Amino acid sequence: MPILQIRQAIRDAMKEEMERDERVFLMGEEVGYYNGAYKCSEGLLDQFGAKRVIDTPITETGFAGIGIGAAMCGLRPIVEFMTFNFSAVAFDQILNNASKIRHMTHGQFGVPMVFRGPNAAAHMLGSTHSQAFEHFYAHIPGLKVIAVATPYDAKGLLKTAIRDDNPVLFLESELMYSVKGEVPEEEYLIPFGQADIKRKGDAVTVITWGQGVPVALKAAELAAAEDLSCEVIDLRSIRPMDEAAIIASVKKTNRAVVVYHGWPTGGVGGDIVARIQELAFDDLDAPVLRVCYEDLPMPYAENLENLILPSPERALAAIRRVAYKR
Amino acid sequence: MNQSEAAPDAAAETALDPAYEAKLRADYEGQSREDVLRDYREMLRIRRFEEAAARAYTRGKISGFLHLYIGQEAIAIATKQVMQPGDRVVSAYRTHGFAIALGSEPNACAAELFGKAAGLVGGIGGSMHFFDKKRGLWGGYAIVGNHIPVAAGHAFASQYTGDGAVTLCFMGDGAVGIGPVHEGMTMAGIMKLPIVFVVENNQYSMGTPLKRTLPVEDITSRAAGYGFASDRFHVTSVQETRRRLAEAVDRARKEGRPTLIELITYRFRGHSMSDPAKYRQKEEVDRWRLNDPLERTLVALKTIYQVPEQDLDGIDEAIVAEMDAAYEFADKAPPPPPEARFENVMAEGPYYGDSATTRPAGVE
Fold this sequence. Notes:
A: alpha/beta, 7-stranded mixed beta sheet, 5-stranded mixed beta sheet, globular, B: Rossmann fold, two-stranded antiparallel ribbon, 8 strands, THDP-binding (chain B)
């Protein structure tokens, strides 16, 4: 099976969908002549031309809105944000137009499109460029929110996203674009709403997604050395969420830790804890813990950033705590 | 051009004023009686629809925000007349006029204001979110200025698919300062999209006159910065508005060049029903009334076309009856059923929420 980087898997997904459907186009800053700020669109301009691989000025509200307006006409836009931090500039378009147009037009219009790009902290980018946006977008009915951590998942889920008839927020990771993995040559799609068990275990359930996945897997490895067997569930799809997979695992392990990028207050992590306590209260042997950013803006200084980020060591500490092994 | 909040030059004290009459005759030169009667009827339908809305609001039948178009009707009528099948109108939250002009059913429009299932958008949108796709009404947007990039996206789709359609994007003078307007226009200019941007300058951004919200008097001075053509004029008649809108629509369709048009107009009601409009003097409103396109059309019909008073009364009475019937229909129409709230959230069908823990009782 070919080994690809995540960036190549993303590129291949877009390429295949653009070959398959002329309504699909890619729009964003530097996606064309520059081949993508992170090279996710390498070669697409050459193959599809400037009509379908469209460089935009720095106007997130402008091109997000153009994508929405085009999707309402039946096209299937992929809008790339150079980072999801810049999606904040287009937040109104996503919140008030993309997510609501089907509803407020009583189904006269739909918005079949994908917003994609890297999400969450990378390395020493400071507070404005180190934020996790699933916590904002997963709050909004009408949207779907996907986060990927392997080339296989990236390709299969992005193809699904492009074919989905709803607006999909597709979250990647700047630090993980070079992560390699097997990707089948034949076509495959991964349905939304299905978590993937990235590591089997029976003592503690670790729920994670996106950039949290390598942290959780490393922590599980460290825990295994202490005879603590962790089951690592990669949600992949945050909205819709595979609640059944979470609950099935928790009913087996009776303990859960949520590992993710983003702040603790008001986010997806707290939502997962709420679901677990309601659906598996009697199965729990310990409080569910979250390992995420400290509740602070991200500093530039490397030592301070490392203190704030969720680390395998912090995740391990939480795993020990829920297992009452200190 | 005059100070934006001042009345046009043609203002005169009465319809009998010779200067007023001369201008009126010049404006209606070459217009057939049939066409002018049609324009009058169409404008009056909007006005009577909205007057009925105001009454229903006062009686507590309509809630939320209700922004009336009274005084600006000629714009919607002229727009309808320059559109070809497939062309799109995208507007803000003062949109009843466009709906009626484009042929939306008054019953459906009134039912929407009443929050009823038979409404234009099922009672889901209310006054600020009118959409009627098959008649070319593409919104209906209530966050000021956020429809400008969306409208540019419609025009982009026309360019992409070659459907030949033109998008006409309307906004108020109060919108021109907000960011999405700039970004959407920048994109439309750089992509050479088949679109016409029309600012309906009705003098007030809610209660604030334009001179306090814009550093220059002429909104179209911005057109050069986007590579657009531009036009700017007082809206005093349907025919003149139609002629000049048609030029811009033609330019969009044939050359793919956007135009920014500033239409100087006036709304006779407050910003919304809760606004008594105390920020302006009665004298100002009276001056503008002399140039109300609907009033001028009526005067033209009486003086130039010699239409008998009883014929005009008959037209009015028929329209009032039509609109009364629409509001009667809306009043009696049933509200949306409880399960309507699950519809059109997601493309796949009824949606009950993402978690089993928070779904309403009785649904899976």
